[in-house]
Amino acid sequence: MLKRTLDQVDGTERDVRGDGWRSRRLVVAEDGTPYSFHITVLDPGAQLRFEYTRHRETVYCIEGTGTISDLAAGDTMALEPGRLYSAGIGEPHEIVALTQMTLACVFTPPLKGTEEAD
Asked: How big is the CA angle at 73 (ends 69 and 75), to the nearest 5 degrees?
């Protein structure tokens, strides 16, 4: 059984940062699971575009507010606590953080742990 805390990930190679975001990867490929699990914090005002070529992503909003846009379909949904979205392989999407946001993210297949959002 795997047991890990955010504090154990802080400052390690699993604590990945980029412009406007920080992702703490609690479970990654080397842990032997068919998914990875991250807690990601977005800075207020961050505008981030994603399109994964090898991963499916499901994101649940824990705190904060923003929007998620499906760039292929051209629609946008408010993101707030209790809402989630799931993007498939090759589905371009954009998140805009109106406030600081905390998100729980699951990727399948799992990330190695050091990848950046681009």
From this structure: 40
